[in-house]
Design brief:
By secondary structure, this protein is mostly helical. It contains two helices and no strands.
């Protein structure tokens, strides 16, 4: 839809809601609303990047923890085998 109407000013101008009001009326957004809309988008993008980085960091920590858990489980299996062997030797003596 081509937005050609001249923007109508109202109390919401300069906000994201103002931008949405202009669009719903089928008109171009005024400069203040366009700026507010752009600032919101930039803030959203920055939050998204920051949270995505945090998710990746937590995934990496989880992978390290899982490797540690697997190594500990393997160590416990080895200890159990050694104890079983030792018990068998003690019973044979």
């Amino acid at each position: 839809m081509a937005l050609k109407k001249t923007p109508t000013a109202d109390a919401r101008c300069g906000t994201r809601r103002g931008y949405q009001a202009h669009r719903s009326r089928g008109e171009r957004a005024c400069r203040a609303c366009t700026d507010a809309h752009g600032a919101y988008g930039a803030g959203w993008s920055a939050r998204h990047r920051r949270l995505s980085a945090e998710v990746e960091r937590l995934r990496a920590e989880l992978a390290v923890a899982e490797r540690g858990r697997d190594a500990a489980a393997e160590g416990m299996r080895e200890v159990a085998e050694l104890l079983t062997d030792l018990a068998a030797r003690l019973n044979n003596d």
